[in-house]
Amino acid sequence: MAALTTGGRPGKDAMDTIWTMLRDNATFLLNGVLTTIGLTVLGFTGALVLGTLVAIFRVSPVTPLRVLGTVYVEFFRNVPLLTLLILIVFGLPDIGLLLPLFWCGVLGLVLAGSAFVCETVRSGINTIGVGQSEAARALGMSFTTQLRLIILPQAFRTMVQPLVNNFIGILIGSSLAAAVGVSDITNVTQQLNIRYAEAVVLFLIAGAVYLVFALGAGGVGAWLERLVTRSRIGGTR
Amino acid sequence: MYTFSRRGLLYVAAGSSAAAALAACSSGTPPVGGGSPGASGSSAGGSKQMSQADYDTIIKAGPVADAATVSASPWATKIKSQGFIKRGGTTTSAIFSLKDPVTGRIAGFDAGIGDLLAHYITGGTDVAKLTQVSQTSVDTRETMLQNNTVDIVVATYSITTARAQKVAFAGPYYSSGDSIQVKKDNTTIKSVSDLQGKKLVTESNSTAITALQKFVPGNTPTLFADNDSCVAAVQQGRADAYVLDEAILLGNAVKNPDLKVVGTPFTTDPYGVGVNKDDPTAKAFVNAFLQRIFDSGDWLKLWKATVGLYVDAVPTPPKIGSVPGS
Amino acid sequence: MAADTATRVLFDEPGPRGRATIRLATVVALVLVALLVAGAVRQFAVSGQLAPYRWQFFTYTAIVQRLVVDGIGNTFLATAVAAVFAFPLGLVLALGRISHARMLRSVSTGWIEFFRSMPMILVVYAFLLALPRFGIVLPVFWMLVVPMILVSSATTAEVFRAGIRAIDRGQWEAAQSLGMGRALVMTQIVLPQAFRIVLPNLLTGLVSLLKDSTLGYVVSYGELMQQGKELVAYYHYMIQTYLVIALVYVLINWLLTRLASWLQARMGTRRTAARPIEVDLEPAQ
């Protein structure tokens, strides 16, 4: 607790305090990192599935589904994530649905993320010329074959970068779960800061976690994009 | 800087009519179930509601320093010439400093100490104009005093020796402590020793975090931004117990019949009035003021109108300077 | 909506049997949607959340004024001030990132990459929790707005960069062959066009800023979320308050995104070359 008075000034004692803090709370910090990974990965996976489903709704010839998809996207794309999380954490139990805090965070990220993923998928399919599917249908391809061989591979190529952005959006958004009590890395560093008053070190740690994951996602995205470009010859336009 | 009292003025006119409507509504349709009666402070409300009118009467009846006393302190002279006190505090602390959304007025025990002090220095009788509240947090209080962003901090501000190295503490003006709130049907938690291994919540901006660290080592409490989130967490079963200042918890128990407070406070939090260290007359001046309202009974009147609505044991004023750091 | 390319890509023009299937699916979907909505409303009603006294305070003039004048007013103020600083800063960073001066390029790139990966709440915590220990306490307004500026400058920079890159290289070559310098080409030829291209994306950036301003809830700046917090602290009706606030945000942001798509559509008809730009947010290689 000596750190309370020394603040963030460097010095041997301060370094020792920081070291002790990190050692004593290694599991706590690690859990925070794992929680952030869990929120992001589950949130993104869920958003991918739900977002694709909503995208199908939005382009389907069935009007009520299209309206439902549009209302869904407009709501969840425009509602601030923090407001949504507060409603999920404190609102859902009052209508009889009590989820653990972690899953509240995942749900919020899936709902908000899927609205953005939906738009990514939709504009991805939109980039494909109508002629492509007309040609496929003329060749007698079934709907699923057409989707599998013609539409999705081409759509996916233009979707890689926007999807990486969706992923980073969900990663960054996961930090808001800290404001509703989920012990992700942001929340853990905030708690440790209250106890140890080592703000600078703690914020550097949390910042590094997000930076590494975001840059990593960007790298994977670039690699994926090269992969899909190489595997298929021929432009989309 | 966000100033409340100036804005509050805009609403006094609109607020009074709306408050009247609110009073009519709350008497017409009594709230049912676990919901709490959200009666306005300025409405008639129930007997357990803080009344803005009573509050204003108490402030206006408070003592006023004579010119010589004020001019003896450069700190007080500055406040007198600016006409109001800049208080660091909050707008969302039930019982201690809570803003009425209809009138924009901030009232409570801490708010009252600030308003009484402002009234003491300036002699102003328009209670709404006596203080301007700036939002402070656990992390910003000392610096805001050091930078003279605020004149005083009255915000359930516990006197500690570590803090006293940076700012001066007048008081203590109240001694409180952290207690435990559980659901009414909970029989397993009776005191702080039962908290180990339980799911705990507290406010992210409170000293209860350090208290829990000390009394329930190894337990990581869930932190929520405000009192209502913590209350909801206990009611909804996300947490077994909620630890915070006893008065606030007792207030919660009155408003939420499904909650209770167990045991007696397991910490002693002597609340002080934080002032800048540079002018030593500031601390002495506020101490003299506190002694004056202790002796005159204004302190007790304020307590009865605020904390006393929820706490039964009538306190005696603490001894000024009785705590290390004060 | 029905004219969406995707609809035509995925689904053939329906024949008589197709139309019958669509009609059936429509009826089934309608029933399912109605059931979903009814179920949600019923859950609310059963748990007593629809009781009129829990909503009544929204009808008080003073509360509406507080939410609209104070809440939305401060939300707009924070968003506008942040945009006024962040957008020009974003342009400067974008120019820095494509400049030929290596120093400038690496500083801009570093700034953009850093703040694009930083959650806004972490930056807010840095201003709320870390800086005060070094004697720096910003007024609450700036504690919210400075992080908004920092984070938004990075994303806006990428929007501008994408806009600049969308200008055909031929324009550069033509202008330079006329003897125009790099700076002149940029300011006279490229930027005016780029501005028009990125305008809808800037509006989307405004929506992000507006959503980021909800962190006023964390620093206690009196924007809409903080007003909600104060209402909850006084009346204790959490769901009701945040539900209304969520709808207000959705409405405001929806209007802004509508404006953005309208601008985009309008530009699309006027400029043959203008296709909706996919903002390239790929990290620097």
Characterization of the model:
- The complex is a heterotrimer of chains A (237), B (326) and C (285).
- With 237 residues, chain A is an all-alpha fold.
- Helices cover 80% and strands 0% of the residues of chain A.
- Chain A is built from 10 helices and no strands.
- Chain A is elongated, with a radius of gyration of 22 Å.
- Chain B has 12 helices and 13 strands.
- By secondary structure, chain B is of the alpha/beta class.
- Chain B has helices spanning 4-28, 52-61, 67-71, 74-82, 109-122, 141-146, 161-164, 208-215, 227-235, 246-255, 280-296, 298-305; strands spanning 85-89, 92-93, 97-99, 106-107, 131-135, 152-153, 168-176, 178-183, 200-203, 222-224, 241-245, 259-262, 269-275.
- Chain B folds into 2 domains: 4-26 and 41-175 and 270-309, 3-Layer(aba) Sandwich (D-Maltodextrin-Binding Protein, domain 2), CATH 3.40.190; 178-262, Periplasmic binding protein-like II (D-Maltodextrin-Binding Protein, domain 2, 3-Layer(aba) Sandwich), CATH 3.40.190.10.
- The longest helix of chain B has 25 residues, at 4-28.
- Chain C has one domain: MetI-like (MetI-like fold), CATH 1.10.3720.10.
- Chain C has helices spanning 5-10, 16-46, 61-98, 102-117, 120-130, 140-165, 169-177, 182-212, 216-219, 224-235, 238-270.
- Classes of the chains: A mainly alpha (237), B alpha/beta (326), C mainly alpha (285).
- At the A-C interface, helix 3, helix 4, helix 5, helix 6 and helix 7 of A face helix 1, helix 2, helix 4, helix 5 and helix 8 of C.
Describe this protein with a few key phrases:
heterotrimer; A: 237 residues; mainly alpha; MetI-like fold; 10 helices; 0% strand; disordered N terminus; disordered C terminus; C: 285 residues; flat
Count of runs of 4 or more consecutive helical residues of chain C: 11
Largest interface: A-C, 76 and 67 residues
Distance between the termini of chain C: 38 Å
**Principal-axes shape call of chain A:** elongated
What's the Cα radius of gyration of chain A? 22 Å
Query: Approximately what portion of the residues of chain C adopt beta-strand conformation?
Result: under 5%
CATH superfamily annotation of chain A: MetI-like
Task: Give the oligomer, counting copies of the same chain as homo and different chains as hetero.
Answer: heterotrimer
Number of DSSP strand runs of chain C:
0
